[in-house]
Structure formats: structure tokens, C-alpha cells
Amino acid sequence: MNAIGQAFELVLRWDVLSVMVLASAFGLFVGATPGLTATMAIALLVPITFFMEPIPAIGAMVTCSAMAIFAGDIPAALLRIPGTPASAAYADEAYAMTRNGQAELGLGANLFFSALGGLFGTAILIVAAPWLAEAALKFSSFEYFWLALLGLTCGVFIGATNPVKGLVSLFIGLLVSTVGLNNPAGVPRFTFGDVDLMGGIEFIPAMIGFFAVSEVLRAVVADIRLAGVPQLIRGSLFQDWGRLFVQYWPQQLRGNIVGTIIGALPGAGADIAAWVSYAVSKRFSKTPEKFGTGHVEGIIESTSSNNAALGGAWVPALVFGIPGDSITAVVIGVLYMKGMNPGPTMFLNNPQNIYAVFIIFILANLLMIPFGWAAIKGAKEILRVPRHILMPCILIFCIVGAFAVNNSVFGVVVMLAFGVLGFVMEENGIPVAPAILGIVLGSMVEENFVTSMIKANGDLAAFFERPIAAGLGILTILVWLSPLILFLWRRRGSAPLPGGSSAP
Amino acid sequence: MRLNDAVIGGLLLALAVAVFLSARTLPDVPGQRYGAAVFPMLVACGLGGCGLALTLAGLRHWEGAVTPAPWMRSPAAWGRLSATLLLILFYIAAAEPLGFLPVAFVVLFALIVLLGGRWWVAALVAALVALVVAKSFGSLLLVPLPRGLLWL
Fold this sequence. Notes:
The complex is a heterodimer of chains A (504) and B (152). Chain A is mainly α and 504 residues long. Chain A contains 22 helices and no strands. Chain A has helices spanning 3-11, 14-32, 38-49, 54-71, 73-79, 91-99, 103-136, 141-157, 163-177, 195-198, 203-222, 241-264, 270-284, 296-320, 326-337, 344-349, 351-377, 379-382, 387-404, 409-427, 433-456, 467-494. Chain A is globular, with a radius of gyration of 23 Å. Chain B is mostly helical and 152 residues long. Chain B folds into 2 domains: 2-67; 75-140. In chain B, 68% of the residues lie in helices and 3% in strands. Chain B is built from 5 helices and 2 strands; from the N terminus they run βααβααα. Chain B has helices spanning 5-24, 38-60, 75-98, 100-114, 119-140, and strands at 2-3, 66-67. Chain B has a two-stranded antiparallel ribbon with strand order 1-2. Chain B: Residues 7-146 form the DUF1468 domain. Chain B: This is DUF1468 domain-containing protein.
């Protein structure tokens, strides 16, 4: 029996498939509700996946995130309020299309190209992950140290408006990861003599606090009611697909590629992919003046991109255990708890699990077409659920979820603390995503750093002796220096240059 | 709320110093030069560096320690925020002695009313959601939710 056959047997079971269907409905609802993000959908789902086998758990998370990222487009088009941050880049454009009476065309394009983008990201995942895993087998603690550091670095620098605040968030996350007994010397560290803290700060309650409770608190202070009731979508969503595909295939392909790459870069996910792709589309468009007036071109490119990013984010997550975005950060935490430690050895020892992930990805993106169609048709009902009822229910789910991880009230305390911390951080322009990366990767960075230091007897040069480690190290340091290099480049560019040559 | 960067920077700097000093006392791996202390000390250095950078940047653009966000001028928003936090604290304190069902009902009911729902809608939704959550988590997923005074 080969691994691919086993993988099909793992996935094509009624329990896995029904979990995926339920997760689709949940993901579509959360994604389509403004103020609830895809990451929050995952955060609320994790306590439930906790009680599942690994494969249905992965199926639930993959399906839910793919559906949520697509569904964010629905209120963006109908109300000009992006359902998730990943749809913010083209919310104005999509709403303009709706006002021009082209809601069917716009939402149809969102649905079709979201699914295509997701499938493209999956294809890259299928090709790239095993290939990278082979290389990763030769890695030692030096390479892993640099990889983890590179991941954290990308998380801070990509898409951050203020890199210093990104760094603050990252260091807070790393600091949180040092709490407890799990350290090289096995001594209680920063536990203040508290027994609960000795086990370390549990990742799941922290994440529920960061991504869900802080969101509830924001909704509580903002007191926003939904602006207007969306119209019903009557026309056919499918009629323009062939024409759009023929006319815009280069944009679609470019969106797919950019999205997959940005997704694979640690720390940057679907949100940033959509912004970059929208900008790229406008920059290279033959008709940039039409952008912003309800033109479908930029929507196609960026809606492809944000769904492609989801697949891309799983490449470093599966191969190195380094999350490509905040969703995979959560997934990695769950995989560890399930004993399915991500890393190259998983490709050797349990290839059927890897293939099962691939199959789940393909299924999720195919399911998106019928389920997405239903969500668009039912958008009016979904968007009518009142927020003053929704938010309290979410809070109770958060509390039960944080409790269920260890069956202890301490989880709820951690959740509350991180909810307040996340709320205050976001209010002050400090992003929370790098902190989650820090919490997930902290022990990996520390372990590989201390092991490497002991191996090298404190000689920092050893971090650059192995060729791949040296390459990764230089790359990391280059990213650190990039703000400085950019600054110097701009100064050189703005200064008048002799000889008439000019910087681009 | 927008605290001035210098205020955040100062707080971070203080945190970094505290972490550094307390990490220095942590023991090494027996027989090795590196152990539990080195990583937190590095993190503290990084945090301190960021704190310093934010302090300097904040002092250059000083416009008072706090620039209130729009919602902060509304006492009602403060009331809703503190009530939400108090309700979570109430859950933490009361769930064990009173049990999940009554406490979850109170939290849901109070929060829905607080956010502008009608009281009878709130009572209905709170009762229904508390029961569904208790049944699905408590009986299906076997989470030992606190039973307290009242259970199904």
C-alpha cells in the first residue's frame, strides 16, 4: 500500500468530510462577518480540534481558513466593509463595482479566482515542500537557529509600518516563551513561585486572548452598528468566468505567484499579499486610470493572491516548523500538541500525513465553489446577525476554549491577560502577529541557539562555518540592515547625480 | 488610546532591566557555560534597545503623554469596556463555586443588555447559548465544565 493511497484513505472518511463541511460553514460565516478575522476563526476552532484526530483537525483548519479568506470579500463588495483584513485592499474597488450594478460580476470573480488561487498555492506546496524537506534533512542546530531567526525577522519587517514596534511585539512574544520549566537548564524561570506558570504560558489561551478577546473588546468600545442592509444577489455568478479567465489570465497568474511567495515568507500572510498584488496590478495595468472606479482587473489579481498565500504559508510550516503567517502559527502549535511535529522527518516517516494535507487543500478549494455560491446568495441573512448578540457568544466560546485546553481556570486567566495586552498593543500601533510568532518559535530559537553555542564553545564564527548556515545568516543580517540600506539608497537617489545618470 | 511612544519606551526599558537582572541569577546547564540565563538576557537587551529607540522617537514628537482615541472621550465606552472585563473576572471567580450554567448565563445576559439588546432577547439567547455550550462541550467533548449548583 503506497503513501498516496493511504492518504486518500485518511481523508475520504465520513468524519473527516463532515468536519470539513462544518468548518466551511463556520469559516464562511466568520469571514463574512465584519470584525471577525480568519485568524479569529482559527483561534475559536482550535479548542474544538483539540478533541479530534490529527487529520480531521487539519482538515477543519485548512477548510475554515480558505473559506474565511474568500468570504471576507462578500461584505467588502456589498457594504464596503472588509470581512477580514485580507479583503481590505480591494474593498473600495469591489464596492464601486456593486454600485455600478456589477455585484454579480465582482463577487463571481472573487469566488472563481479565490478558488483558482488557492489551488495554485496548493500546487506550489505539493511541488516545493518535499523538495525543500530533502535539503532540510541535512540541517543542524546552526541552520535551524538562522531559519527561525530569519522567520522572526521577516515577521517583523514585512508589512510593518513601524519596524521598531514590530520588534517590540516580537520580543514580548519571545519573553513569554521563556516562562516556565521548559528551558536548557530545566529550572523555573520567571514563574514567581506560581505552580501554574511552571508549565509555561499555554499557547492556545494566549492566542485566543490575542486574536479573539481583544477583538471583542474593540467591538465593545467601538459600538458600531452595521451600515445599511446589503441587497440580494439575484443574477448568475458563473456567466462571466470563461471570459474573465481568458482576458485576465496573466494578472491571475501574477497574483497567484506573488501571493504564494508572500505567503511562504514567514510572518507575512494573505493581508499583505492582497495589498502588494493590488499595487502590482495597478502599476503594470494598461488602464491604471480605471482602478478605483469599479474595475475588475485589480480585484482578480489580489483576490487570487490572498488565497494563494494560504497554501504558500504551509510550505515553511510543514518543512521547517516555521509559520508563514499567523494562521499557520496556530496550526504549528496544534500539530505539536497532536504529536505530529512538523519538520523534514515528517516527510520521511509519515508521508501519508503530508499527502493527506495536500488532498485536504485541494478538496477545500473545490468545496469553495458551491459553498461560496451559497454564502453569496445568503449574504443578506449572514450580515443581519446582530453584533450585540454575536460578540457575547464569542466571548463565552473563548472562555470555554481557553478552559478546555488544560481543564483549568488558569487558561481563562491567561486568555484575559493576553486579551487586554493585545487590545492595548493594537490601540498603540503595536501589531500582535509578531508576538504570536515569538511565542511559537521562542523555544526553537533558544534551544538551537544554546545547543549551537555549547557545540561551538561560545565561538560565534561557528554560526557561519557551514555553507547553508552562512548563507542563511548573511540573508538574515541583510534583512536587518535593509532599512539602513533603503535609507541610504533613497538619499543617494534624491541627491542630484553627476553625469546625468539617475537612479530608478 | 494612544500613549506617546516615549511612555511605551520607558515602560519597556524598565521591563527589560528587570528581566535582565532577574535572568542573570538563573543557573547554567551543569558543566556548560550556557544555560537558562543567556536567551532571556539577549531578549532583554533587544527589548531595551527597542524601548530606547521608542523613547527617543517619542520625545521628538512629544504631544502630551496620552493622545486619546475617539472612543476614549465617551464615558459609555469606558463603562462597557470595564464591565466586559469585570464579567470575565466574575467568570474566573464564580465558575467553580456556582457552576458553568448560571455564571455563563449571567455573563451572556449582562453583556447583551450592555451592548444594547432588549432584556427578554438577552435572557432567551443567554439561556439557549449557555445550554448549548454546556451540552456540546460538557457532554460531547467531555470538558469537565464546573457543575456547581445547577447542571443539566
